[in-house]
Amino acid sequence: MGGRLREALRISDGRVDADQLVARLEAVHRFLGLVDGYLPDTPLSPARTLVERAGTRLSLSRDHTVVALAGATGSGKSSLFNAMAGRNLSPVGVRRPTTGVTHACVWGPLDGGARLLDWLGVLPKHRFVRESLLDGDDESTLHGLILLDLPDFDSVQHAHRLEVDRLLGLVDLVIWVVDPEKYADRVVHAAYLREFQRHRDVTLVVLNQADRLPPAEVPRVLADLRRLLDADGLDGVPLLATTIVDPSGHEVLRTELERTVAERQAALRRLTGDLDAVVDTLDGMVGAPRSALAADDPAVAKLDRALSAVAGVPTVLSAVEQAYRHRAASRTGWPLVRFWRRLRPDPLRRLHLTGPQPGADDPEQVLAAATSVPEPGAADKSALALALRTVAERAGEGLPSAWPAAVSAAARSRLADLPDALDRALAGTDLGLNRPRTWWRLVGGLQWVVTIAAVAGLGWLFLGYALRILGLPELEHPMVGAVPVPTLLLLGGLLSGLLLAALTRPISRWAARRARRRAEDRLTRAMGQVGDEYVLSPVRAVIAAHADARTVLEVARHR
Ligand SMILES: Nc1nc2c(ncn2[C@@H]2O[C@H](COP(=O)(O)OP(=O)(O)OP(=O)(O)O)[C@@H](O)[C@H]2O)c(=O)[nH]1
Ligand SMILES: [Mg+2]
Prior knowledge:
Elements: H1 3-12, H2 18-35, H3 41-60, E1 65-71, H4 77-85, E2 103-106, H5 111-120, E3 127-129, H6 130-133, E4 145-149, H7 158-168, E5 173-178, H8 186-192, E6 203-207, H9 217-231, E7 239-241, H10 251-263, H11 266-286, H12 298-311, H13 313-332, H14 335-343, H15 347-350, H16 363-368, H17 378-396, H18 403-412, H19 418-428, H20 438-469, E8 479-480, E9 483-484, H21 485-557
Parallel strand pairs: 1-4, 1-5, 2-3, 5-6, 6-7
Antiparallel strand pairs: 2-4, 8-9
The structure holds guanosine-5'-triphosphate (GTP) and magnesium ion.
């Protein structure tokens, strides 16, 4: 049998499956765990109360049905209670109100019922066991019934009202007792009956003291009361006319109670009604499904840009470009001036950016990894705040209740850790400048060759002059055309060096820009990872909790 069909059949016969109810309650319990910390406590408290109450009620005794007689003072609750019990257990009086504390009568062995009565808070001296009262009396059709006679709910005594309200939240079925005089009372309908709309299948209305009406009037009053009940949203609830003056006047109520007890459904139905109400409220708190923030969302790109700015990436990139040119020049420049160049500080080392070091996970290394990149300015900080807000707005868009606030809080939850994380990411990113380039070596080598040629030429010429001055036999310089070779070596070497330096400069500038772009890619990735870990991850956790909460609520809703 398909689930839907089974469900339809179950609904049609009005029975509640206990296992399914438990599964639904467990789903609400899981829901509460999932949204804990994201949604405020107050609107969730009815759900928490229900889960706890239902768990207790179901664990105490499923064989007992707790039925309460509720109504205004003098409507005849205690009289009906005594009539059902067949004994005067709860005093009936002329002074109003009479009943101040709840009385209970248990049909059948007390057993599990005692713990149930403890939980209901009925004092032992107001508990009665029907079976033991009248030996031999067969009350087996009511076995499992716990009938409660409540104080009056419209009482002048505040304590009475509190007691009634407390018990109405716990009992399985409520019999509302009204009398011909006060059946249309506004308090009864507005404050109580209307509140029981969801519990139509565990609500019964009794027009007591029917004997005080002319017999012909009874149907008219019943019809009037039915109209009022319909207006309360209680259409379809059983409505009975009773009187305690003769036994046949309350037989119909007894039959209803026997049916209720035999079904063993009231407790489950009561909890189902409460659960439906809770699930509806929770439904309003989760709303429509919401997909996680896409990685290519403009808000993410904006966040990455803001993080880069706060981390000082633009400063680092300028330093990368300068450092490239500095390092290229100190290796490819004219050998005689390279030394001076090397004395000038390296722009990257000045910022303490030397790339990832071995043992980067070691806490001491991490502390040592702090860079000297300047602190972010106010504009960059406020741009980051704006980017965080945008991320939160985009991720929380369309979410109901307190979810947007939860998303926003999550986006900012690790804000305090961001500066260190960004700095660590800067220090740990390989900016691609640790290795000297091959072409630097090549050009550097060539510079050496031409410099040596120039120096050799100079030496050769110098030797020639020296010999001439000392009057020694002169050197015969080999000639290339009209130019002596040493002169050629000297001038050629010098010119080639200058030419090489002139050619190298634009190449170095171009390569520095490329190195900058590559470093930019790497730093953008690194900043993106920080944003992911410190901002997007907590945000995603909230969105995931929302999605999970929706899923479990689906289970909780399933009837
Ligand atoms: N004629 C008539 N009188 C009734 C009937 N039921 C109750 N009474 C009388 O109505 C008065 C009030 O009855 P109770 O049973 O004490 O009413 P209650 O609802 O328990 O009142 P509280 O305990 O004050 O809330 C008593 O004098 C009863 O004798 C009935 O069916 N017919
Ligand atoms: Mg009473």
